[in-house]
Amino acid sequence: MDYKDEELEELMHGAEKRAHDGRLERLRFLLSRQDPNPAPVDALAYQYFEEARLCWYIGAFVASIVMSQLALEEMLRAYYRSWKGVDGKLNECLKVDKASFSKLINQAKVDGWLSPKEATQLNKIRNDFRNPYVHPHDLKTSNTFEKPNWLQQLIKITASPLAEKGTEDEARESISVLLELFPRISRRFWSMK
User: Fold this and answer.
1) Cβ atoms within 10 A of the Cβ of 68, count?
2) Phi and psi at residue 95, to the nearest 5°
3) What is the 3-state secondary structure (H, E, C) of 169-181?
4) Strand, coil or helix: 128
5) Least confident of 36-50, 115-129, 145-159, 161-175
6) Cβ(97)–Cβ(65) under 8 Å?
7) Percentage of the chain with pLDDT > 70?
8) C-alpha distances out from residue 53 to 87, 88, 99, 118, Å
9) How far is Cα 155 from Cα 87, in angstroms, rounded to an integer?
10) Which residues are registered as beta bridge partners of 89?
11) Which of helix, strand or coil describes residue 95?
12) Would the CA dihedral through 171, 173, 179, 182 be positive or negative?
């Protein structure tokens, strides 16, 4: 279908209006939780961190959940790469770059780099928020009358008032954990306070 320039302009303005709703509040949220102290972080982990923040600000909530998890995972992975080498192995004889986020969390907890509470927070992002969006077909439900996972995810995205917790709520919780733990754990890795 060919669109006239005026029609494209109208579509763009409509998209900008929808995208603008809530940005001011989301920016306030980000700035109110911003850690003023710089923390040493790997370049890739930092790029994921910034992308997660941008996705939250713009209102791309599923993307902000996924990017929050990626930033935290890459932060852990980068630390173990520097400590054990690119081909280094974790305690489970698994190469650092082959380890899942779950394995990295467990290793960091065993090594004393993560508190049990921090490990629980990271696992919550992984299990409760990221995995259902990334693997909507993989999750099994025990109750046959319960909605299938793909339908639950669709409802959370498109009709959040009908869900127990909507995508924006999950993104807010994910980004909160990212903003809190990313600098704190990074400073801990590099023996900074």
Assistant:
1) 31
2) -60, 145
3) HHHHHHHHHHHHH
4) helix
5) 145-159
6) no
7) 93
8) 31, 31, 25, 20
9) 42
10) 95
11) strand
12) negative
Q: Which of 68, 54, 83 is nearest to 180 (CA)?
A: 68
Please report which confidence band the pLDDT of residue 187 belongs to, taking 50, 70 and 90 as the band edges. Answer: very high
**Sequence-distant (≥ 6) Cβ neighbours of residue 53 within 8 angstroms:** 30, 64, 175, 178, 179
- Cβ atoms of 96 and 88 within 8 Å: the answer is yes
Q: How far apart are CA 121 and CA 124, in angstroms?
A: 5
Distances (CA, A) of 30 to 46, 98, 146, 148: 16, 32, 35, 33
- Predicted TM-score (pTM) of the model is 0.85
Domains of the chain with bracketed CATH: 38-189 (1.20.120)
pLDDT at site 142: 55
